[in-house]
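hiii so um. not sure if this is the right channel but i have a protein structure encoded as tokens and i wanna go backwards to a sequence. like what aa goes where. can anyone help
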């Protein structure tokens, strides 16, 4: 059996081979696109020296409401230009905002080179510093574009890594494979990684059989609940303004979940969530009592919102939400009121219903630990997102502040506008 001391030089050799192969491809291919990021932190950011490179990004949620944290190796500058101790501190600073809820790590390996890679000693120190607080709610670590170097490093670390943590590692050979697990459109993927993925797929093309013809998408079922518009659901459900999924999950959670610590921060078994979605889409009854877990309806509610073709707050208000930080603090609640009252009537009624419930949840925050701020971190990205592209880390701040104001000042924001068809939880 190969010892750890033998594996370390082997890892270095593999990395050099990969660099040489990459350099040879770049001789004939178009020049590599320099890493870039939509993240431009303010110079007052406590870790501006690291954050400005865009190495670490928070990029929305996966398909089951778990926060996505991305680490892009191609954004690492040469080692002499980056204090790796500061990088570790910044990674912990970022994770500290989300580790109390379930989260996902996506590691883009392409772009790691001898000139910019942290040392193996640094990796060991980093792993040892990430205590149970960080590891227990990490649900999956996706390693995208793995190489022999990655597999050797994994073997070096195996003695340190628990079996339970090891099961969280998933290798992803091509970006398309992420679509089965994550909201791909929300991902912040550096241009270098996209270019590398295209090269890998082109190289594979000759070895693969011709792709099967993809059948045209089937029209939604009359009973469909997920992935269809509010208008479609209303037309197929006897003009019910509140979609059945929202009505039923809120009703159950109001009765059984208001005092559950970490409500909306935990995930549930992926297959179980898929099964419940299927029941809803087939028009079959769903009895949450049989699952014995309030986190199931909580995840179903977030999943429903995330799969709407257009966000509940609509695309039109996205830029207005982004501008909320430009409004004086004393006037922000009034501005929130103006924005939500400009929504189409059906959207306003559903938003008011949902935010009324979230306000109720926040009223029990001493027990459930879900303050308006914590709820905003969970629900903000599920209520509004841009028409094109993903939500950058800087865009998250105004979204979360806007959502927090809606929850905390619910009665002021929603109290004076009462459409004829409104419903309360």
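sure thing!! here u go:
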């Amino acid at each position: 059996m190969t010892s750890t001391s033998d594996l370390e030089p082997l890892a270095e050799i593999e990395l050099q081979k990969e660099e040489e192969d990459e350099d040879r491809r770049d001789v004939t291919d178009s020049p590599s696109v320099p890493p870039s990021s939509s993240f431009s932190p303010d110079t007052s950011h406590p870790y501006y020296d690291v954050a400005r490179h865009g190495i670490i990004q928070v990029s929305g949620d996966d398909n089951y409401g778990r926060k996505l944290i991305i680490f892009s190796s191609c954004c690492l500058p040469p080692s002499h230009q980056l204090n790796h101790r500061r990088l570790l501190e910044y990674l912990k600073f970022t994770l500290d905002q989300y580790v109390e809820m379930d989260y996902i790590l996506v590691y883009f390996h392409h772009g790691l080179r001898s000139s910019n890679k942290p040392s193996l000693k640094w990796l060991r120190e980093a792993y040892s510093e990430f205590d149970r607080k960080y590891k227990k709610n990490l649900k999956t670590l996706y390693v995208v574009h793995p190489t022999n170097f990655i597999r050797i490093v994994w073997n070096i670390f195996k003695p340190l890594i628990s079996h339970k943590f090891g099961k969280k590692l998933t290798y992803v050979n091509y970006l398309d494979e992420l679509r089965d697990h994550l909201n791909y459109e929300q991902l912040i993927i550096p241009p270098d990684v996209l270019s590398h993925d295209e090269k890998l797929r082109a190289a594979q093309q000759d070895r693969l059989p011709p792709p099967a013809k993809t059948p045209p998408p089937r029209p939604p079922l009359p009973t469909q609940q997920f992935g269809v518009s509010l208008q479609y659901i209303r037309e197929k459900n006897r003009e019910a303004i509140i979609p059945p999924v929202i009505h039923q999950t809120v009703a159950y959670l109001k009765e059984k979940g208001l005092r559950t610590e970490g409500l909306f921060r935990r995930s549930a078994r992926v297959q179980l969530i898929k099964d419940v979605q299927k029941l809803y889409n087939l028009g079959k009854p769903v009895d949450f009592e049989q699952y014995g877990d309030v986190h199931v309806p909580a995840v179903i509610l977030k999943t429903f919102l995330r799969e709407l073709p257009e966000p509940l707050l609509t695309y039109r208000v996205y830029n207005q939400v982004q501008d909320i930080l430009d409004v004086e603090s004393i006037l922000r609640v009034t501005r929130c009121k103006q924005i939500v009252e400009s929504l189409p009537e059906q959207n306003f009624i559903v938003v008011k219903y949902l935010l009324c419930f979230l306000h109720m949840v926040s009223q029990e925050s001493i027990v459930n630990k879900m303050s308006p701020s914590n709820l905003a971190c969970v629900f903000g990205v599920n209520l509004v997102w841009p028409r094109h592209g993903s939500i950058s880390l800087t865009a998250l701040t105004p979204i979360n502040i806007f959502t927090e104001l809606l929850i905390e000042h619910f009665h002021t924001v929603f109290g004076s506008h009462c459409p004829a068809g409104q419903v309360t939880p």
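oh and The CA atoms of residues 249 and 297 lie 5 Å apart.
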